[in-house]
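[Amino acid chain]
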Amino acid sequence: MSLGAAVDALSLLRQFIDHDTFGRKSTVLKRAITIVDRQPELGLWRRWVHDTAADANLPLQLSREQLLAFLRISDNLPGALERIVRSFSEQPFTQPKAILLRVLEILSKHQSVEVRDLCVRGIADVLSLNDPVLNIALTHMSN
């Protein structure tokens, strides 16, 4: 998608998000995350999409790839990662935490030592929850 087409698409998506006419705000935001993740030149749009998705508590509804994209569009990956780990760890449901584990596993290979350390702590936080399903997932994670 060209830069101009991406901006046009985001402008249209923003109208849907701002007005939530069809009650599909989360679906539209997920699409916006995908668009801005693929277009690094869209700095202001990236910030707006990230902040709007965070305000809507959308990360809990994202797949692994969408959550990785959400984190990539953040201007502060360590800060966003800390918020995500805290938010996901507080949830009573296993599935978001299982998705978080996969994301932490992927990001544990990040070039930043700070990000890698946050991933190790995040995995330890999930382990401390003593969820039997998550404990099985943790034993199958690659090192």
